Automatic annotation (TrEMBL), chain A:
The lineage of its organism: Bacteria, Bacillati, Actinomycetota, Rubrobacteria, Rubrobacterales. This is Cell division ATP-binding protein FtsE. The gene is ftsE. Transmembrane segments: none annotated. GO terms for biological process: cell division. PANTHER family: CELL DIVISION ATP-BINDING PROTEIN FTSE, IMPORT ATP-BINDING PROTEIN. NCBIfam families: FtsE (TIGR02673). Part of the ABC transporter FtsEX involved in cellular division. Has ATPase activity. Keywords: ATP-binding, Cell cycle, Cell division, Cell membrane, Membrane, Nucleotide-binding. SMART domains: AAA.
Length: 228, 293
């Protein structure tokens, strides 16, 4: 589903964010990407979104080599990827429902489909009472639920989340992780970057650890730290 | 682009206009002021050209007799002038008739009407020509009859004076118009860019959830179109109104200004089209800078 082949990313200021990364994630997997701040997690996410280009190596997502996608087809590529961010990235002038609807509208879906699907998906993430609330009127956890609803509303085959619980308290975080877990259960490939140690330890999923831009560990049913 | 998107784009554009009211007002005001200046420049040059045209079509030459001219001289001149082939009609206006005309012209302004006596206004001869282009030749003949240049009043004189003046005026206006157009495009796209810059994070998010450039750009361009339309329409209404007020005023003071020099409807359409074009182009190019995510 997602393959990194000898990927190196050097930013313009010569900061080496990723060095010779090889990684394969198969369809239906749930993978934690862990590592200290600055270890290169967000860079991997942005490469997958084709927000950045790798300096060396190649990446393929959904069977498509990203290097071969022309600029005008990037939006199409992104519609196959649900994405969730630490800072939610909701549109401030749109209500919860409108934010979710926007992700359907960009794909040109019919108004009727949008109107039935949006309340359903917001109900699914536990926000059926907040359809018309603006992001500023929602708590962090609620905003993150809206953003997950938006990422998932078109049922993309892959969902990537960059520190989705980074700004949330532990209890709220559990709810968010459960949501991602459920999305994975219905067949979506999920990649979550985090440095939430407890969460990773509790969930016993595949863990890929980055250190200074290198993959230092890749363990099925792993924990956050190196275990003996 | 699917057709069912257009409702969405329009709703987005209108909503954005409301939400960014201050920015919209700035862009609309800027457009209005710039279009007004453009309109004023177009008006002035159209009127100047209209005046020249009117004067050029004038077929009347007036020759004023000197104060001490004897009745004999006057009669001699009259009979010789009536023989000019270019002249279709000649009228002698005596001092008394000149005074009557003066009083009639200013009948609603008694102060002016009674300000002159019959000894001030000279007698004159008015010649109607068959062709206004002969006025120079006829003036030449009159000079050989003994009239001084200062005693003659013929269109070529006025045209020469006007041409000297309007030659500079039209050039100055052209330069000013071009400068103002450039300035207004800069001002307006700057106003739009500010409003878009404030929303660059939104654009980034839109692109991350898979919106195409066109999808992100269209509501902004519609917004620019609406801003340009409102601003330019306001300006066009003001310009056309000011024009008719000016024409009325000028005509009441007997300037040879004609309302026909300007096609008010065409002027309005031109100004609105310019405003809309600036609004659309301004937002198109301003958004483009933020689409590279
Ligand atoms: N836009 C950027 N320009 C330059 N350097 C960057 C940029 N983004 C990240 N980096 C650098 O790349 C490295 C990895 O960053 P990042 O991928 O954000 O790590 P993480 O998400 O794991 O905290 C860091 O050293 C960071 O300073
Ligand atoms: Mg990060």
């Amino acid at each position: 589903m997602i393959y990194f082949n000898n990927v190196t990313k050097v930013y313009d200021n010569d900061a080496v964010a990723l060095e010779d990364v090889n990684l394969g994630i198969e369809a239906g997997e749930f993978v934690f990407l862990v590592g200290a701040s600055g270890s290169g997690k967000s860079t991997m996410m942005r490469l997958i979104l084709k927000e950045l280009e790798p300096s060396r190596g190649n990446i393929s997502v959904n069977g498509v080599k990203l290097g071969a996608i022309p600029r005008r087809y990037v939006p199409k590529h992104r519609r196959n990827l649900g994405c969730v961010f630490q800072d939610y990235k909701l549109l401030p002038n749109k209500t919860a429902a409108e934010n979710v609807a926007y992700a359907m509208e960009v794909t040109g879906q019919k108004r009727r489909a949008v109107r039935t699907k949006v309340p359903q998906i917001l109900d699914l993430v536990g926000l059926k009472d907040k359809l018309n609330a603006f992001p500023g009127q929602l708590s962090g956890g609620e905003q993150q639920r809206v953003s997950i609803a938006r990422a998932f509303v078109s049922q993309p085959p892959i969902l990537i989340a960059d520190e989705p619980t980074g700004n949330l308290d532990p209890e709220t975080s559990v709810g968010i992780m459960q949501l991602l877990h459920r999305i994975n259960h219905i067949g979506t490939t999920v990649l979550v970057a985090t440095h939430d140690r407890e969460m990773v330890d509790v969930m016993r999923k595949r863990v890929v650890a980055l250190e200074a831009g290198r993959v230092v560990r890749d363990k099925v049913r792993g924990g956050y730290a190196n275990e003996v | 682009m699917r057709s069912n998107n257009w409702g969405f784009f329009l709703r987005e554009a209108v909503k954005n206009l409301r939400l960014n009211l201050l920015m919209s007002v700035t862009a609309i005001t800027t457009t209005a002021v710039c279009v007004m200046i453009l309109g004023a420049a177009l008006l002035v040059s159209a009127h100047l050209q209209g005046i020249i045209r009117n004067v050029g079509q004038d077929v009347t030459i007036t020759a004023f007799f000197p104060e001490n001219a004897s009745q004999e001289t006057i009669d001699d001149t009259l009979s010789s002038v009536q023989g000019y082939p270019e002249v279709s009609e000649s009228t002698y206006v005596s001092r008394e008739e000149a005074l009557d005309r003066w009083k009639e012209t200013f009948s609603d302004q008694p102060d002016i009407a009674s300000s002159v006596g019959s000894d001030v206004l000279p007698a004159s001869i008015e010649l109607q020509l068959n062709d206004p282009r002969d006025s120079g030749a006829v003036a030449e003949k009159l000079r050989s009859e003994g009239f001084e240049e200062g005693d003659l009043n013929y269109p070529q004189q006025t045209i020469d004076n006007l041409n000297w003046f309007t030659g500079y005026m039209v050039w100055a206006l052209r330069v000013a118009t071009i400068l103002f157009l450039i300035a207004s495009i800069l001002l307006i796209s700057n106003a739009i860019r500010l409003s878009i810059f404030a929303r660059r994070k939104e654009i980034e998010v839109m692109k991350l959830v898979g919106a195409s450039d066109t999808f992100v750009r269209t509501p902004f361009v519609l917004e620019g179109l609406v801003q340009g339309l409102i601003g330019a329409t306001l300006a066009a209404v003001v310009v056309v109104w000011a024009n008719s007020a000016f024409v009325n005023w000028a005509q009441s003071y007997l300037f040879s200004v004609s309302s026909e020099s300007i096609n008010a409807f065409g002027l309005m359409l031109t100004l609105i089209a310019v405003g809309v074009l600036i609004g659309v182009a301004g937002s198109y190019f301003s958004v483009r800078r933020f689409l590279k995510v």
